[in-house]
Structures are given as C-alpha cells and as structure tokens.
Amino acid sequence: MNDKLSDKEILYFYDILHFVENKIKKGEHKGYRICDKGVKRFCKSNQLKLDYENKPYEHCDKNFIIFKTGNDSTCPAFFKHIRNAFAHGNIYKNKNMYILKDVYRKEITMYGYIGQNLFKELIEVIKSTKKK
C-alpha cells in the first residue's frame, strides 16, 4: 500500500523543485558530479545503486534508482527526474521507503525505490560535490 507524503516531506520536495528550477535549469549545474568518488563511496557503503546506463523499468530492488540521461549530463538529469516525479505526483511512501517514478510520453524515464533517510542523505552528498 502506498502512502501520501507528509506536509514536511512535501516541503522537502518543494525545496528540490526550487533547486532544479533556479539552479539546474538555469545552467548552474556545472560542478555537481554523481560520478564523484565521495558519491561512489556513499553508494557502496549504503548498498545503493544509481543506474543511468540502462533503460528504466519498474522494479522492487531496495535502494535502487534507474534513470535516463537523455541530452543532459548525469547530475542535471537525475535532479530533473526527481523534480518531475514530485511535480507530477509520482512520489509515494511504502513504510520507510520512497517510490519515485518519472514518466514522459508513457515511457518510464526514472524509477526508484529507496529508503527515505538514505534518499535525503544521497541528495546532500551529491549537492556537496559542487566545487565552490
């Protein structure tokens, strides 16, 4: 059974939406790196898989996010998919897990099943890769 997001979670995802609209889409995405060593270590130590090389599909693997990059580089694509999933009402909870889904023209472009706290930590780790 899928649960709705709490008010606090809605505000959190609005912050991501705002970040994408005001930073990522305005060209301030340079410097964020999903391939950063710190992100890779974080993923490995938390048994989290980020897959941007294969075609997205719905699955039940825990702590797994698969997404298309299209014409964007990896990091902007990731953030745009999260923004789209929220903006289109495709983020749900299942106990302590987030189910994230982005669809474009009836095709799944991102799917994720990830622990709530782990997701928030991942976002912070990726944001921390930006060189100042």
Can you lay out the helices and strands and say which pair or pack?
Layout: H1 7-24, H2 37-45, E1 49-51, E2 64-67, H3 74-87, E3 91-94, E4 97-104, E5 107-115, H4 116-127
Parallel strand pairs: 1-2
Antiparallel strand pairs: 2-5, 3-4, 4-5
Structure, briefly:
With 132 residues, the protein is α+β, with helices and mostly antiparallel strands. The protein contains 4 helices and 5 strands, in the order ααββαβββα.
Describe this structure in words.
This protein is an alpha+beta fold and 132 residues long. It is built from four helices and five strands, in the order H-H-E-E-H-E-E-E-H. The protein has helices spanning 7-24, 37-45, 74-87, 116-127, and strands at 49-51, 64-67, 91-94, 97-104, 107-115. It has a five-stranded mixed sheet with strand order 1-2-5-4-3. Strand 3 and strand 4 form a beta hairpin. Helix 1 packs across helix 3 (74-87). The longest helix has 18 residues, at 7-24. The radius of gyration is 14 Å and the shape is globular. The protein starts with 6 loop residues before the first helix and ends in a 5-residue tail after the last helix.
Low-confidence stretches: none
What composes the largest sheet? 5 strands, mixed
Class from helix and strand fractions: alpha+beta
Report the order of strands and helices.
HHEEHEEEH
DSSP, total strands: 5
Distance between the termini: 42 Å
- Write down the overall mean pLDDT: 90
* Oligomeric state of the chains in view: single chain
Q: Report the C-alpha radius of gyration, rounded.
A: 14 Å
Please estimate the helix content: 40-55%
Enumerate the strands of the largest sheet in spatial order, edge to edge or round the barrel. 1-2-5-4-3
Q: What is the tally of helical segments?
A: 4
Tertiary shape: globular
What is the strand content?
A: 15-25%
